[in-house]
Amino acid sequence: MTGSRSSPNIIITGTPGTGKSTHAQLLVQESPIPLKHVNVGEMVKDQGLHEGFDEEWQSYTVDDDKLLDELEPLADRGGLILDWHTCDIFPERWIDLVIVLRCNHTMLWERLERRNYPLKKIQENNEAEIMGVVSEEAGESYQSQAIVELTSESLEDLQENVSRMVEWIRNWLDNNAVAQTNQPDGT
Question: With 110 labelled, which of 10, 73, 91, 180 sits at a CA distance of 20 to 30 A?
C-alpha cells in the first residue's frame, strides 16, 4: 500500500453532514507531519472534473477518470487527506487509512436542514446514514484493518477522533521508517 511514500494517505468519509471537512481541517493543524487536505467535491466543481450538474440532486456528476487522473500524482507523493462522501472510487493501493464518520440520524437531519439541503437530498442522505451505506462501501473496497469507524456528534468527539488519527499517523511513521530502513537498497 505505501510503496515509497514517506507520508500516509487518509480518506475521511461519511454521509454529508458528518463532519468530514471539520475533521480534516483540524487534522491538518494537529498532524505531526504536513498533510494536504483535498475536499474532493470542491475539487470536482472548481477544476471541472465532472460531466455536468444534476438539477434534481443539486450536485455534479463526477467524471471518475478525470478525478483519478488529477489525484494520482498527489496520492503517489503521499500526505493526502481525501475528504469526500464516498470512498470506493480510490484505488486501495493509494490509501493507508479510511476514517468513516457516523452520526445519529436525527442530528444529521438537523445539520443538513441548516445547510438548506432540499428535502429529497436530506431524506436520501439520512437513509444512507441509517443503512450504513458509506461503511459498507469502505468494507467492500479496503481491508478491514485500514478502516476505522468513528462517531461524530460533538466537539468532544471531534477532538478525540483527531487525537486518534494523530496517534495513528505517528504509528504509521514509526512502522514505515523501520520498513524503509530495512530495504536492501537503504531507501
Answer: 10
d(CA 149, CA 146): 10
- Per residue in 115-142, is it b (16+ CB within 10 Å) or e — as a string? eebeeebbebbbebbeeebbbebbbebb
Strands 36-39 and 97-102: unpaired
Q: Helix, strand or coil for residue 63?
A: coil
Task: Mark 62-93 as b/e (b = at least 16 C-beta within 10 Å).
Answer: bbeeebbebbeeebeebbbbbbbbbbbbbeee
Query: Residue 122 corresponds to which cell in the numbers above?
Result: 436530506
Query: What region does 77 belong to: left with phi over 0, alpha with psi -120 to 50, or beta?
Result: alpha
DSSP 71-102: HHHHHHH--EEEEES--TTS-GGG-SEEEEEE
Predicted TM-score (pTM) of the model is 0.91
The identity of residue 47, as a single letter, is Q
**In the numeric block, which cell numbers belong to residue 13?**
468519509
**Model confidence pLDDT, tens digit, residues 139-181:** 999 999 999 999 999 999 999 999 999 999 999 999 987 555 4
Whether 6 and 80 have beta carbons less than 8 Å apart is answered as no
Cβ–Cβ contacts within 10 Å for residue 55, how many? 7
Name the residue with higher pLDDT: 102 or 185: 102
